[in-house]
TrEMBL record:
It comes from Spirosoma endophyticum. This is Xylan 1,4-beta-xylosidase. GO terms for biological process: carbohydrate metabolic process. The keyword Electron transport does not apply. PANTHER family: ALPHA-L-IDURONIDASE.
Amino acid sequence: MSQRNSISWLKTSVLSLCAFNLLASPTCLAQSSPPKPVTIQVDLGKSKGPLKPIWAWFGYDEPNYTYMKDGQKLLTEISQLSKVPVNVRVHSLLVTGDGTAALKWGSTNAYTEDSKGNPIYNWTIIDKIFDTYIQRGMKPIAQIGFMPEAMSTKPQPYRHYWKPGDNYNDIYTGWAYPPKDYQKWSELVYQWVKHSIGRYGQKEVESWYWELWNEPNISYWKGTVDEYIKLYDYTADAVKRALPTAKVGGPEVTGPGGGNSPVFFKAFMDHVVNGKNYATGKTGTPIDFITFHAKGAPKLVDGHVQMNMGTQLRDIDKGFEIVASYPSLKNLPIIIGESDPEGCAACSEDLSPQNAYRNGTMYSSYTAASFARKYDLAAARGVNLAGAVTWAFEFEDQAWFRGFRDLATNGVDKPVLSVFRMFGMMQGNRADVKNGLAYDYIRVRDQSVRAEADINALASKDAKTAAIMVWNYHDDNVPAPDAPISVQVEGLPNQRVLLQHYRIDKQFSNSYEAWKKMGSPKTPTPEQIADLEKAGQLQLLTSPEWITAKDGKATLTFDLPRQGVSLLKFSWE
């Protein structure tokens, strides 16, 4: 027997003996001691300012999934969970091709040229994508990219056929290069904006965000920093010529905390403020919002997934710090254009086992805990965080629960989507959650969640409702006892209040656990699919009940499993 197996056997034996009270030792006492209760104090009467819906932002690589069967279904559900318009960001809106959908690929054929090099504009597929959003009251983040084949300085090879397990660098083909002619590029952008105004109206297009490219500090951009800046100048000028009131921004760099990203980011910001504009010759460049990306870094440790929320929060904090260092720009809206536990949405669990967090409740608890800390980081740096894009959607016609970073599989919602349903019920101002808990945003940023669990809350209140989201998160996805929770609330109205307690855990709001109980069918029957769809909806832990808040106070107690999330919703007349 190996040393590791011996230790495992010994641990199991001790637990068994303790269970039968055959050992009266400190070891048994430690194993059988109940978890320490956690008290969360919420003061609904103490406002911390508006709770901006920074969560109502989503994105994905494959634009042609937008109007496919499961894509349309999921977009409908996303639009319905939010009281405010949801913003949607996708790649490849200017890529040349026939619109065939594939992993890490999409195309619209918006721009081609005739035999004499004259432009041919075709907005059919872009319109199909944007119509799908507009019909649902959603707002496109119009990503201006990537390079059409006829315009690329290195067009071949152009179309890639990447799949999970292939070299990731194979995706960076002719679409990633600078244009041969910046004037032609500028005219393409101008024509796109003008077409959008004609189709959707000026007021609608004014509500969109027009952004340039994606992660130009890595291989998504095969040009130099200066060439990206030049492209931005020509792009921003074209957008503003077509619609002076349009919102345009960038640079969508990734990983502000390391590599070449800070250098790229600061070079861009310096140019926006003081540089000579390549398109106009004037000083500076129009910018209405600022974008960057931030990702975590999960890995396998002793056979289980270990997340690293701290890595993501440090990148966010560094991005905020860079923006705050420019006095003339620090109040502009910031959009974290991709804000996720790690980088590759299309890298499936079967080939990337560290991504095993995606199907179950670890993804949902991570999302709850990390979004709450984004508010804190923005407030500490004094910047204007408008949104954080969750880069997750759906992957059409793939195996059930394959482990992509998605919100639904084959039209069935995963647990993470119900966290956003919870966020959608949080309105008004952010309420104070009092100190004394194990983690604050500084500790999570600096240490991640490697010691005790992060059990905490985010709270909100408006004129007729209040909501408290409580999570029990840990970076290590290992079994742990349920945590006894006591939520002490003050600031409720002195009257009868309706309480609804929603829950995401292994038993509630969890299509993945339901699928496993079915035997993990590769081809579920129609009856099984109906059951899975029901299991994927946000569910109540208990029946709604009326409570009376004496002197505006109430105490609620419940057990919360590890990686579980609860939402306590109060409403009154």
